[in-house]
Amino acid sequence: MEERVTAFLHYMAAERGSSKNTIDAYRNDLMVFVDFVRHEGSPPGESDEPEGEGGTLESLDRELILDYIAWLTDSGPHGKGYAKATVARKVAAVKSFCSFLLDSGDLASNPTAAVESPRAPKPVPQPLSTDEVDALLRAPLGRESAEGARDAAMLVLMYATGMRVSELVSLNIDSIHLTPGTGFVRCLGKGGKERTIPVDEQAARSVEHYLDGARAALVRNGAQRALFVNRRGDRLTRQGFWLILKGYAKRAGITSHVTPHTLRHSFATHMLRGGASLRAVQELLGHANVSTTQVYTQLADEHLRIVYDQVHPRAQ
Question: What does the pLDDT read at residue 304?
């Protein structure tokens, strides 16, 4: 079964264009499932079947899938007790894997077809307030250094465009096009899909300032194409950006938990509150389905309700 998992992961990468992070997540989730199947439905460690000699593809049936879900959910001594969101993710991986096995002729029928996936509650993203965003974007301005100029450009560009952190750190020099006071950036989103996002005047100025000398002070290899580099001159990583962001959030006095995705949430919510259409925000974020973007409308509606209650003469 491990060989079929490897084939499935190759299919996800080559045919579906899934990212490395997605592939790694599928691999981890499916190996948990393979271990369960290896013991023919008994929790690993509870079966008398010698390891490696248990379950095969032929053992995959609806009952085994339901046993697997029960094992993931059970918080007792013989279960994993995972949260609903984790169970939903792991079951989704198994469903995709079984669909692949069916399409490739390894299974005569899909054992997950009649299995309902656990519904995980969707957490409502918590954006920063506009005052908190202003404080965060000002935080690097006190650093008179190449790294300070880089950090200011990254933060303002991320908030101006709503890019994912993986998209931000993947930008190259030729990904951004600036004209006096404005410009646009081309980034590769999920599935290798390219989209073009406008860059506002403040973001354009910050990136221009970084490119005017700060980047050259950091780069050690003239062939380096990355737009944002670390102090060694290498492409900045997602983890590196996260550490930078955490430091500036603390400096800005923001007490809530701030992640790179927080800036993306804030961008979307503030755009909708400012009057942008849901479809426009969907395109800017690079969401394949508008339903993914609709989560932000709840935050925008809540904001309108608060404003209404505060100012409408009959709302008191």
Answer: 46
In Å, the largest CA–CA distance within the chain is: 74
**Contacts (Cβ under 8 Å, ≥6 apart) of 183:** 176, 177, 198, 199, 204, 207
Full-model pTM = 0.60
Residue 242 confidence (pLDDT)? 93
Catalytic site includes residue 164:
yes
What is residue 198's three-state secondary structure?
Answer: strand
- The label of the residue with tokens 């980047």 reads 215
Residue ranges in the chain whose pLDDT is less than 70:
40-55, 120-125, 181, 290-292, 294-316
CA distance 97 to 92: 9
Which of 19, 259, 31 lies closest to 127, judged by CA?
A: 259
Catalytic, out of 27, 190, 209, 231 = 190
For residue 82, indicate whether it is catalytic.
Answer: no
CA distance 303 to 12: 40
Gap between the Cα atoms of 83 and 28, Å rounded? 16
Residue whose token pair is 């005569």: 108
Where are the extended beta strands (E) located within the chain? 176-179, 182-188, 194-199
Q: Which amino acid is at 251?
A: R
Catalytic residue among 38, 39, 150, 164: 164
Q: For this structure, is 261 an active site residue? A: yes
Q: What's the mean per-residue pLDDT of the chain? A: 84
C-alpha to C-alpha distance for 164 and 206, rounded to whole angstroms: 19
Active-site option among 150, 264, 265, 270: 264
For residue 287, indicate whether it is catalytic: yes
Helix-, strand-, coil-residue percentages of the chain, each rounded to 5: 60, 5, 35
Please report how many Cα atoms fall inside a 13 Å half-sphere around the Cα of residue 72, on the Cβ side: 25
Here the tokens at position 185 are: 């950036």
